[in-house]
Amino acid sequence: MKFFVDTADIADIRELADTGLLDGVTTNPSLIAKSGRDFMEVTKEICDIVDGPVSAEVVALDHETMMKEAETLRRIADNVCIKVPLTIDGLKTCKKLTSDGTMVNVTLCFSANQALLAAKAGATFVSPFVGRHDDNGFDGMALIRDIRLIYDNYPGFTTEILVASIRNPVHVLESARIGADVATMPPAVIKGLFKHVLTDKGIEGFLKDWEKTGQSIPTA
Ligand code: E4P
Predict the structure, then answer these.
(1) How far is the CA of 163 from the centre of ligand 1 (A)?
(2) Which of 9, 55, 90, 201 is 20 to 30 Å from the Cα of 118, by its Cα?
(3) What distances in angstroms separate CA 94 from CA 55, 89, 121, one per listed residue?
(4) Which residue out of 129, 136, 138, 168 has the highest number of ligand 1 atoms within 8 Å of its CB and is therefore the one to mutate?
(5) Is residue 126 within 8 Å of residue 115, measured between CB atoms?
(6) 86 CA → ligand 1 middle, Å
């Protein structure tokens, strides 16, 4: 499963990219606003740090303007992935862009039928929002299971399931169990995956015993 980070915070992106485990980045207008940075400038900076897809979202609601915005965004870097909302105009834009070889992430997906439409429109990624689904009394992970089942029924579909709106490590674990292709996570969730109390305790115990040996490992 690929790991994307869901943020426009450069310090967090750099820190996670340094682990070698980061496969891409997703942003949205709210995350850009939170960064306080210029959209074009910060997106370019992110694209320079990460080799994988960097989702940048259009804000127009009509197909013609979406296409114009996408044109501007795709000039930022080769790894920009245009993010469009799951609407008729969004999917029209998706179809046009992907047939020209541009990566597209169809966002704000809340039903398996919507995911079916995104796949038919040739989306590179579809982003079902599990956290917001849960928040509204639905079962976010059941949605991922349904989409996986449907996509697997039609091997011709190439759209990757990008689990979005992830709130905790259980969402990540379940996504991997189901076989989702990508999980985009806030930096804190990714960092949390590394942690286990028994790992910390184990290191502490080993180092205590190592001290007793009086030895050191030559580092030069
Ligand atoms: C996905 O690409 C979105 O940016 C994101 O996951 C939304 O998450 P939220 O529900 O925490 O805002």
Answers:
(1) 9
(2) 9
(3) 13, 9, 6
(4) 129
(5) yes
(6) 14
Spans of the chain, pLDDT less than 50:
none
In 3D space, the residue among 28, 30, 25 whose CA is nearest the CA of residue 48 turns out to be: 25
- Tokens 């690929």, located at residue: 2
Using CA positions, which residue lies closest to atom 11 of ligand 1? 165
Distance CA 149, CA 160 (A): 13
129 C-alpha vs ligand 1 centroid, how far in Å? 7
pLDDT of residue 71: 98
Question: Among 3, 6, 163, which residue has the most ligand 1 atoms within 8 Å of its CB, making it the best to mutate?
Answer: 6
Query: Which ranges in 88-168 belong to alpha helices (H)?
Result: 88-99, 112-120, 130-135, 140-153
**Active site positions, annotated:** 83
Q: Kindly give the distance from the C-alpha atom of residue 28 to the centroid of ligand 1, in angstroms, as a whole number.
A: 7
Task: Determine which residue's CA is closest to atom 5 belonging to ligand 1.
Answer: 165
| pTM of structure | 0.96
User: What counts of helices (H) and strands (E) characterise the chain?
Assistant: 11, 8
Calpha distance 131→78 (Å, rounded): 30
- Helical axes 88-99 vs 112-120, angle rounded to 10°: 30
Q: Domains of the chain by range and CATH?
A: 2-213 (3.20.20.70)
pLDDT at 10: 98
